[in-house]
Design goal:
Helix content: 25-40%
Subunit structure: Homodimer.
Largest sheet: 5 strands, mixed
CATH topology of the largest domain: Peroxisomal Thiolase, Chain A, domain 1
Distance between the termini: 23 Å
Oligomer: single chain
Protein name: Beta-ketoacyl-[acyl-carrier-protein] synthase III
GO biological process, one term: fatty acid biosynthetic process
Organism: Candidatus Chlorohelix allophototropha
Number of helices: 11
CATH class of the largest domain: Alpha Beta
Family: Belongs to the thiolase-like superfamily. FabH family.
CATH architecture of the largest domain: 3-Layer(aba) Sandwich
Bound molecules: acetyl coenzyme *A
Strand content: 15-25%
Number of domains: 2
Strand order of the largest sheet: 1-7-6-4-5
Number of strands: 13
CATH superfamily of the largest domain: Thiolase/Chalcone synthase
Amino acid sequence: MTQSAYYGAITGWGQGVPARILTNHDLEQMVDTSDEWITSRTGIRQRHILSEDESNFDIALAASKKALAQAGLEGKDLDLIIVGTCTPDFLFPSTACLLQEALGAENAGAFDLEAACSGFIYALSVGTQFIKTGAYQRILVLGSETVTRFIDFTDRNTCVLFGDGAGAVVLQSTIEKSGLGAFKLGAYGAGGKLLNIPAGGSRTPPTAKTVQERQHFVKMQGSEVFRLAVRAMVDSCVEVLEREGLTIADVDLLIPHQANIRIIEAVGKRLEIDPSKVWINIHNYGNTSSASIPISINEAIESGRLQRGMKLLVTAFGGGMTWASGLIYW
Ligand code: ACO
């Protein structure tokens, strides 16, 4: 591929997280589980969840406003809005279109992109391509999820794992080497049923029966997903580093999707990265699907852990199955 003159620098960042918190002790009152089981098997201590009057759009908007302010831009400056989400407010209009109106982004195109937990890296790679071709200069990219709205709070296998949240970044065109470099997007459709919501789409529309059978909730074969996730995240990270001509020692910070502390640790170990370079915040948020990486980026910057000039490796795995990794020049 011809080298582009343009890079998509990340110039703004922000997160939107519901104020309401659900702790492991709260869950002990709801299903047959324990703080000890959840903490030791997943690393999660609490998660933020939507209140009844909140939606995906609300947290996406909060994250977007912060990211735009950080970048010194207004909605009308945007050329495009891409929202990675598998839990939108509606099948349509898209969450991106809801944001387009609320931000006054009168010059922007807007669409949602669905790649489950890998959605942010997928969306970041798509947005970056629009900048690399020279088509667009300023793009808002989000991962925004409200998975708890699709969780069966009587199923202990899934209800302890997920939280809600949104993270946004602004990409701006520059000729300085910056933003997303090499990336790898992967998919394994044959594994789709390992993690899915069986009903509610056009194949099985909602009926009294589907509701009664609880088919509108997330179903997951956790241990199989676990095994696939580690392999795909590691292999795609190795490929990305090779394509950038880097080794793992060159990476200043690894931000893996926050699905399970044991997946994070297994990925870090197999990549042979210094554990102090692996970002972990799953204890506070649980699995926020596509939002986990942009929330982590926001926190890593705000805490001073991620600084200009650093090389950031991001990697995710999710429903589909999908996976994605990328090297970001910060
Ligand atoms: N509390 C207590 N016991 C539990 C709980 C709970 N919350 N959940 C499950 N158990 C029990 C099971 O019933 C089982 O009991 P049994 O042996 O009597 O049948 C036992 O614990 C072990 O269950 P496993 O499923 O084998 O537990 P495992 O160690 O694999 O951990 C987990 C389960 C945490 C789900 C893990 O497999 C995992 O994290 N998987 C990956 C999840 C993931 O990465 N998803 C992808 C992203 S999500 C997305 O894309 C939307």
